Amino acid sequence: MHEEIFRQANELIAKGETFAIATIVRTEGSTPRKPGAKMIVLKDGSTFGTIGGDCVESGAVAEALEAIKEGKSRTVSMALEEEELGGVGMRCGGRAEVYIEVINPTPKLLIFGGGHIGAQVAKLGQGIGFSVTVIDPSAKAENFPKLVEVIPEFIEKGISKVEITPQTYIVVATGHKYDEAALKAVIDSKAAYIGMVASRRKAATVYRNLLDEGVPKEKLKRVHAPVGLDIGAETPEEIAVSIIAEIIKARKKPEASGESLKISP
């Protein structure tokens, strides 16, 4: 059964899914499963595998969903007794300690455009732990940090070589050469974030053209353009900081204001 659990976990990781693995690490008294039993819990509450009866599993699922929401693993102790005795509604009389490990796949940063801004975004993205891919027909691997995947292809061919998952963050920085083509290629994807380097006027023009081509307005609303937080950035390095800051905000705490944390004395 463990082999099936690991196979399923690998498939979820490949898809960029966040999930939790509940493992019984210690038991006392009578319990339906022993240490080592594992169960996968997905964000929608569905499960794969088993760690015991319905009651202990429903309790583990509730804890796993909370752990996924917080992004923190935890260990919980469950008394397998009647609810009136403080347990989870089982009559085993034992106790199970369950370790719930939250699995967050490595986030991906997909950059369209290997120019000055794209190169700096790739550098910063890799520095904060993203797996980085750059698609640009003119891009050269030697111009990017090691381990950055460079696909020297046009949008249509390059996009076929990557998998966009819910852990993918996309930045369009083509120097306006392929902005519309890039947005059309990813607008229906599962990407967590889509941003485009552009002035307000250029962004409005791109939106208008895509609307004329039949792209729904609701889908375009997910695009961050002009991309980045307003920090007065001017140079490619500064603009990259602005973009990465917005991506961190989108990934960690979308409701954060992005304003200064300064307080008055």
Structure write-up:
The chain is of the alpha/beta class and 265 residues long. The protein folds into two domains: 2-103, no CATH class; 108-252, NAD(P)-binding Rossmann-like Domain (Rossmann fold), CATH 3.40.50.720. It contains eight helices and eleven strands. Strands 8-7-6-9-10-11 form a six-stranded parallel beta sheet, with helices on both faces. Strands 3-2-1-5-4 form a five-stranded antiparallel beta sheet, with helices on both faces. Strand 9, helix 5 (179-186) and strand 10 form a beta-alpha-beta unit. The protein is elongated, with a radius of gyration of 23 Å. The termini are far apart. Mean pLDDT is 89; it is low at 82-90.
Query: Helix count?
Result: 8
CATH second-level architecture of the largest domain: 3-Layer(aba) Sandwich
Largest sheet: 6 strands, parallel
**Which percent bin holds the helix content?**
25-40%
Instruction: Kindly name the structural category.
Output: alpha/beta
In order across it, which strands form the biggest sheet?
Answer: 8-7-6-9-10-11
Task: Give the uncertain stretches in residue-range form.
Answer: 82-90
CATH class of the largest domain equals Alpha Beta
Using DSSP, what is the number of strands?
Answer: 11
Give the termini distance in whole angstroms: 60 Å
Oligomer: single chain
CATH homologous superfamily title of the largest domain:
NAD(P)-binding Rossmann-like Domain
What share of the residues does DSSP label as strand, in percent? 15-25%
